[in-house]
Here is the input.
Amino acid sequence: MSKPDIHLVDADHEIERQFRLVMRRLAGGVCIITAGQGEDITGMTVTSLTSLSAAPPRLMVSINRQASCFALIARHRQFAVNILGSDQEALAERFSNGRLKGKERFEGAAWTYGASGVPLLSQSLALVECQVEEIIERHSHGIIVARLSSMELSHRVSGLTYWNGQYVQIDHEADLDLLAEVSIPLAHVR
Here is the structure.
């Protein structure tokens, strides 16, 4: 039997609360991870996606191990990344709605199956189909390292970010100042 983790928190979990507040200050691009095969599909909204390496192309995403998406990724060893545009906030909210499960999250959304059999959201800024290379389980989450099996890039360049507990729409042409503000909070104050 392994030793339990030691947590440096008081009874009110004050350190964890403060950590969440600190991390809300980090802007993140909004993506939907989709997984599964056939009728057994699901997806979830994440901001925990990052590139790991350009040569060879690899990415990482951190997913709670209790999420249904994690179980399907672990079972099928593949998933898709759907990078959202500025006009897809409602879709991000739908895929983060805990009351909706599995295929219910796709209702009303334009989607199709990719070459690997995973669902892809049609109007995304970019789509990446991925093969799992490694899953590193730490604490409540699994860090998934994946290689790219296919990519598709839209000509649109307006993106959706999440910062300080809210969605922020970024339009490349109109919001370059906003992008700088979100990327470097309080930079305009100095």
User: Anything to note?
Assistant: The two ends are 52 Å apart (CA to CA). The longest helix spans residues 14-23.
